[in-house]
């Protein structure tokens, strides 16, 4: 467990132990600025001792791992982030409702054609939202931890190596990052981990271990290009030996269909990396190198461990705090109702905002906002406000289960709540883990 520290001017310093933070607070040398995560600010100038901190990001479309490691292998922050998946659906609903609304009792509007072009760098909203989320989380993190480097995993295999398998470069010269390894990995995935010769030569029993076979052998001028490679088991590979494709299978050379791999992989590289660059110098890496190193370091597979590996500094074994963060929708703003709400006979025709569609309710001398983290003493549980009904609120835990005091009602009286902290679009829970 660590306490995040800001200096007198609000710039991040290295996190410290809670005992030290307690001492500083007691002596009046610091003040608390945030409870989640616990952050203090020094009131006097400090020596400003800073170490290098590298952030690793295992970028994903649903779950993302984030870890920050110091140069000497202390993991000072690690989190798994669950991203919103409802963007695409919401945009489609919005589009459908607008389209139907347009043809109802509306005045005539001149057709417009000047808004039909997509701007340069346009991305589908669901992908743009994910990239924004990655950027926003790193930006927040850089305000409490002095991050000096960022490494992000952009794809499972190296695209450049696929296009040009004989690539030369700094990364490719040292042993375990040879370009051809990436091609091999890609071929296995492309061919669905199935032996190419299994059907062509059923007389030979396949073995478990998979490798990659050159259709035209290297010795006869075949290249490392993906179109000359197929996935194949060790046994078939051994038995083929120096035979040509025709001699081994009795068939002509196959036309290997190759996917256009570059399109979806370059999205992260071209859009996320330049944005992260604004926070700290950013490098990128590929999934197959992560996986290999994770096995080497004997870490279990998880988004957080992948992020630690991506950061590239071997961590020390220690008990520490992990964060589970979920991205949430702040408020529904639409007024249009397609079907009547539950308990009503007609839809919202006069477009008045429904009371439930609020981001805040005010009770006697307190106010409650959507996604406030609250503690319910009656059942000794902590949750997040997920909705309102009059002066009562719905409270969910981070997995989305309702926390209720009585069996009968889902909603909880706001008198029963104790505020822990306010939240915007991210709700967060800590858990203890051993690395
Ligand atoms: Zn085989």
UniProtKB/TrEMBL annotation:
Biased composition annotated in UniProt, kind: Basic and acidic residues: 335-357
Domain HNH nuclease: 182-238
Native source organism of the sequence: Koleobacter methoxysyntrophicus
CDD domains according to UniProt: HNHc (cd00085)
Protein's name according to its UniProt entry: HNH nuclease domain-containing protein
Family annotation (Gene3D superfamilies): 1.10.30.50
Region Disordered, residue ranges: 334-357
Pfam families: HNH_5, RRXRR
Superkingdom: Bacteria
